[in-house]
Amino acid sequence: MPSSNLVGNRERQFVVVIGFSLTLYLTDITWEVRANSRHFHKHRRRRSFLCFRWGRYAVSHSTLFKYSPLTFLPLTLYEQFQRAANLYFLLMVVMQCVPAISSIPWYTTTIPLVIVLSVRGLKDLANDLVRSLTHPPITFSPSQWKDVCVGDVLRIHKDQIIPADLLLLCSSEPHSLCYVETADIDGETNLKYRQALDATHTEMTSDPTEQTLAAFNGIVLCEEPNSRLYTFRGELHWRGERHPLDSEHILLRGTVLRNTDTAFGMAIYTGSDSKILRNVGQLRVKRTQIEKVLNKVVIGIVLFLLLMALLLAVGSGVFQGRVSSQIEVLSALTRGNSPIYTAFLTYWSYVILLSPAMPMSLYITFEMIHVLHSLFIGWDVEMRGGVERSIPAQARNTSLNEELGQVGHLLSDKTGTLTQNRLLFRQCCIAGNVYGKDELPSLCPTSASPQTLDLSWNPFSCGGLYLSDQRLVDKLRGQQCTQSRQFLTTLALCHTVMTEWRNGAPVYQAASPDEEALVGAARELGWVFLSRTRDSLTVSELGVKRHYQLLTLLDFTSQRRRMSVLVREPEGGLKLYCKGADIVILERLQKDCPHLESTERALDLFAQSCLRTLCIAERTVSEAKWEEWSKTMAQAAMTTRNHDDMLEQLHDDMERDLKLLGVTAIEDRLQDGVPETISLLRQAGLKVWVLTGDKKETAVNIGYACRLLDPDTRLLEGDELRERAGEKSALVLTGPELVNIHYRSKDLENLLIQEPEWGARFMSLAGLCQSVLCCRVTPGQKADVVTLVRKNTASITMAIGDGANDVNMIKTAHIGVGLAGVEGGQAVQNADYALAKFSFLQRLLLVHGRWSYRRIAVFLRYFLYKTCSFALVHIWFGFFNGFSAQSLYENWFIILYTVFYTAMPVECLGIFEQDVSAECSLSWPELYKVGQRQELFNTWLLAATLLHALYTSLVLFFMPLGVFYNSALDYQTMAVTVSIASLFSIILLTRHWTKWSVAAMCVSFGLFFVCTPITHSPKLFEKSPVDYYFPGTHLTSTTNAFPSPVVWFTALLTAWTAVLPSFTILMFDLFSDFPQVHITKHGPVELQKSGFRRGDSHRRSSYAMSQGRGIGRLITSGASRRITFPPVDRRGTLGDNVTLAGQTQSDDAPKNITENGSSK
C-alpha cells in the first residue's frame, strides 16, 4: 500500500477519536445497552395498558393494529362522538327519556343512533383488520422478531432482514465488512457497506463460536432513540477501553444483508425505538375538508335550533300567561304550572321536536356512498396494472374520496415512483462521434427491447445493452480508434464496483446505479472488469487479461462531482482516468483539446433527450510528477490545520491538463405515462413537488424528463431563493437547507428554526414557482415538507411513494397513495389508496376524484335542504297551536321520511350524479379546478342552501294553510298535504335524471302510498292511540285526503313554489353569457424536444451516488472485499496457465483469456 494511504488512515483515525470524544463530551449520551444482559433490560422494558405507558426499552414486536379488544369500544366511541351531530343526537336520546318534555317517542332517535354508531364502528374495525392482516409477515429464524431484546447478540445470515438496529461486531467477510440493501429505507437499490470495529473484529473472528459471542460483555453508551437515519453517536466500553461509534458500525432495522454469509450484531434499538419506525410516524385519523365544514354547519344549525326553541318557549310562556289563563279549557291543560315552568318544559320539547333537522340517517348514507365510491375505484378496469393487469386500484380508506377532487399539491417520491430505477446505457460520444440511435427514444418504456448487436464473440456478454451501433463494436475489435479503447478502459477502471461470480459470469455490486450501468456497458463491449484487491484491478480487454496497479483513488463527493483513479499500466506507464460532470471536467482540459466542439454539441443533443451525462477524460502522469505529488499528499495527511482544503488542492492539481475522451449518456427510464400524467395534472391546477433522497442533479434531470420543468424554467437554489420568483421558476432545495424552514413543534429531535416566519415566506415563494424539488431529504424531512405545505396553505395535499421511506410522508398528507413497486409493500400498507402505476393518478383524481367531490357536495346540500325544510315547519306551526310543541306530522312519518321516503333519491344523486363523462374529464382537466376552489361546497353555499330550506318550510306550511283556511278539511288532511308537497319538492329539484333516479322516485312514492294507509289505520289507532293518532286519511275513511283533488293540486302548487328560487338560479346560469370555467379541449400530450442552451450546466450532468461519500477510502485502505477469482466459463477455449501476481491459480479461474503483461 502507498505510504500516503497508510498515513492518511492513521490521521483519519486520530481525528475520528478526537471528534467523537468531543461530541460525547458535549452531547447528552444517556442510552445504555449492556450486551448479553437480559436481566438488566427486562425490568426496564416498556409496557402499556390502555393509554398508560411506563418503562424505557421498547419491545421488538410492534403491533400493526389500531384497535385491540380493550381499546376498540372506547376508541371508536371517542372517534364517533368527535362528530357534533352524534353528540347532539346522544343528548336528544337522553332528553326523550324524560316524559315531561318528550314531544316525540324515544325510539325515533335511539334506534337510528345505535345503527349509525354500529355501522361506522364495524367499518373502521374491518378496515383495521384488512390493513393489518394483509401486511406481509416477517419472520427471523431461529428467533422471532418479537423475542429480540435490547443487548442480545444476533447472528444474521445472507438475504435476511435485520430485525433491529444492531451494532456490527464481526462478519464472515475480510476486515468484518458487510453489505446491506437499504431499498426499504432510502429507496436506493445499490448496496451500502458497513464495517465492525477493529477490536471486536480481531477478537471474535479468531474464535467465532457461540461461547465467544455469549461471553461478550461490552457496554454501549449512545444517544437516545431518534429518527436520524444517517447519523449515530456513541461509544463502546469494553475491556477498559472506549471505542467511538458512528453510522458505519450500525445495521439498521429493515435493511437486508447481501453478499455476506454471516454477520453478528448487538441489538441497540428494538421495536418502536428503531430508526425506521421512528420515521414511520403515528397513525393519524384523517378527516376531509368537507367533513370539517359540515361539522361547523351542524354546530350552526344546532345553535339556530336552540335559539328558535328559546323564542318558541318564550312564546309559550307568554301564551299561557295572557291567553290560556283566560280560557278555562286551556287553563286546565296547564295543570296549574306557572308560565315560567311551562316555558322551561316547552323549550326542551321544541329542542326534541326540531332535532330531525339534523337526521342521523345522513351519516349512514354518507358512509354508504363513500364505500360505493371506493368500490367504483376498484372496479375501474382502466386502473388495473401489473402482469396481465392483475393488480387493481384499491381504496384502503373509504372516507377520503371527495378529497381526491380537491387536491392542490401533489408531493411525489422519485425513485420507483416516477422512474423505474432502471438505468440504461443509451448513447456515447467518443472522439467527436456519436454512437447510438440517431433518433433518441422517449423516456417512457414504450420503446421495447434493444436492438441486438453481434456480441457472440464476447463470452462475458449477458445481454441488455441498449447502445445499438455496430460501428463502435467494429472499431473496438479492429483497433481502429485508440480513444475508443481508452474510453472503455476508463469505464472498466474508474469506479468502486465490487465483483461476485455467479454461474460463470461476473455480477457487479455498485455504490450507484450509474456505475453499474457504465461497468455493465463496458463488459458488453469487451472490457470486462474481473476483480479487484486493495491495490490492483484486473480487466479483460477483448479477451486479454490485464492487471493494473491501483496507486490512488480520488473518490467522488458532491462538492467534487468527479472521480479519478491513478493506475500503473502493465507496460509500466502511469495513467489518470477521470469521469465526472461536464462543468468540472471541461474546465480541467488541456489547451486546444481536440473534438471539444463536437463533444459539446453531443452534450446538448443528449440534454435535449434528458439523458444523464458524464464526461470521460484521461491524463498521462510522469514518474517525477507522481513521486512529488505522493510526498506532498503524505505531508498533507499529517496536517491537522486546513486538512480538507489542502487535500482538495492536491486533488485539483492532479486532475488538470486532462485529455477529453468522450461522453456517456444514460437514461433513467421513467414509468409509463409519467410525462403525460404530470402535464395533465399541471393543467388541472395541481402543484407537483418531488421529494427524493437522491442527489440534486439527478432530481433536476428527472424533473425535465417528466416535463415537471419546462425547457426555459429557471432553477432557484441556495442564495437565489431570495430573488424574485416567477411562473417559469422552480425551487431546488437539499435536506440540510430544509432545516432552516421546517419546524415540528412536537418533535424535539429536529432543529428549531431561527426565523419562525420564514416557513410562510417560503410557501409564498413556492406558490409563485412552477414546482419545487427537494433532494437529499430523509423520510422525516419528507413529512416535514408535507407539514409545511399543510400549515401554510389551505390546499389539500397528496403524497405518493412506493417504499418504506415514504410511509411518514404518506401518513402526514391529507391523502396518501402507495404504489405497488419493487421496494416492498410498506407504502401500500400505510396508504389510503394503492395504485399499480403513477399514471393512474389521471383517472383517480380527474375522474373518480372529481365525480366523488361533485356527488358528495351535491348530496350533502340536497340532504340538508330536505331535512331542514321538513323539520322547520314546526316553527311556523307553533304560532297556531299555542306554542305547545305539537308535531304537525304523525310520529311514523317523521321516522320514515328520511329512512324510506326520501332516502333512495338522495342516495342515487350521491352515487350516480355525473355532469360529464370520464373521457371529457380527461380531455378538459380545467374542470378539476372547481373542486380546488371549493365551488360546490363552502360555507356561503351551505348558508344559501339553509336559507332556501327556511323559505321552503314557510311555503310548505303557509300555502296549504291558506288553501284550507275556513274549509272542511281538518288538521290531519293538512299534515298529509304538507307531506306530499315535501316529497314533490325533492322530485322537482332533481336535475340529472337517470334510470336509477327514476326507479328511486317510483320506489319512494310507492313506499309512501303503502306505508301511509298502514300507519293511519283506525285499527292501529284503537290499539295504540298514542303511537297511531292519524286515522282520518285511511282510504276507507269518509274524511280521507288521498282522493281529494284539492289536496293534490295544493301539494303540487306548494312544491313548485318551494323550488321556484332554485329554478330561477338555474335558468339564469344557463342563459348567462359568462361561463364559470373556461376550458379548451386538449389533444394527446406529446413530448417535445427541449431547446437547451449550452450554458445550462445544471440541466445536463448527473452523477447519482449513494448517501455520503464513496467507498474509495475503504478500498484503498485494504479493508476491501475478499479477493474473488472468476470461475471457469464453459465457453472458454484458451490457455489455462493464467494467474494473478502473487496468487495461485484458482480452480474456477477463466480459461478463455490470455495474459498480456503483469502488474509492476
What is this structure's SSE topology?
Blueprint: H1 3-26, E1 31-34, H2 38-42, E2 47-49, E3 52-54, H3 72-80, H4 84-96, H5 107-133, E4 153-157, E5 165-171, E6 177-181, H6 183-186, E7 191-195, H7 198-206, H8 210-215, E8 219-222, E9 234-238, E10 241-245, E11 250-251, E12 256-258, E13 262-269, H9 275-280, H10 289-322, H11 328-333, H12 339-353, H13 361-379, E14 394-395, E15 407-412, E16 419-430, E17 433-435, H14 470-478, H15 482-493, E18 498-502, E19 505-509, H16 513-524, E20 527-532, E21 536-541, E22 544-554, E23 562-568, E24 574-580, H17 582-585, H18 596-608, E25 612-621, H19 623-638, H20 643-654, E26 659-670, H21 674-683, E27 687-691, H22 696-705, E28 714-716, E29 729-734, H23 735-738, H24 758-768, E30 771-775, H25 779-792, E31 796-801, H26 807-812, E32 815-819, H27 826-829, E33 833-835, H28 841-871, H29 873-878, H30 891-901, H31 903-912, H32 918-923, H33 929-932, H34 939-964, H35 971-988, H36 995-1015, H37 1018-1023, H38 1045-1071, H39 1097-1100, H40 1112-1116, E34 1154-1155
Parallel strand pairs: 15-27, 15-31, 22-34, 27-30, 28-29, 29-30, 31-32, 32-33
Antiparallel strand pairs: 1-8, 2-3, 4-13, 5-11, 5-13, 6-7, 6-12, 8-9, 9-10, 14-33, 16-17, 16-26, 18-19, 20-21, 21-22, 22-23, 23-24, 24-25, 25-26
